[in-house]
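This entry is listed as follows:

___
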Amino acid sequence: MRVLAFDTSMGAPGLAVIEVRKGKAHIIDVSHVRTDTSQSYGLRAEIVEAWATMFIAKHASKGFTAILREDFVGRTSKQAHPVYSAWGSCDKALNKFGLNFTTPAISQSAVKKAVVGVGKAEKHEVEAAVRRWTGYTGEFAKDDESDACAIGIAYLIREGLIKTEG
């Protein structure tokens, strides 16, 4: 089983491929891209789409059992527009391969509760929990990468596809 998980934002989205073997999650690859706030939303969305397309292309041949993202609800249009633009960019990247998100988005607090045990966990706690769940010793260049992993792990926990810690 292979999961593709998106931590979607306009500023620095993250992606992760997680594979389940013998009831344990293994991080296969992680990535992020940083966009420049001085650029238009349109250009930044194109950058996100190109990055996501390249990452998906790298892994699409082995397929994905589930494709998911973290949920987001903006309080204002100014807050929501960039995230929803990035969502659209990721949708477009997936569509190039005949893929779509396969499961409803998971709320940020549900991800943290499942992976860390606390719905309001800090970024360093999420990264540490991701390492405990997966045994991953590689580098996370940015917390958006470990966040993407946490989204995938939360899904795997929720679906009973990986063994709980301990």
The chain is about 45% helix and 15% strand. Residues 2-158 form a domain with the Nucleotidyltransferase; domain 5 fold (CATH 3.30.420.10).
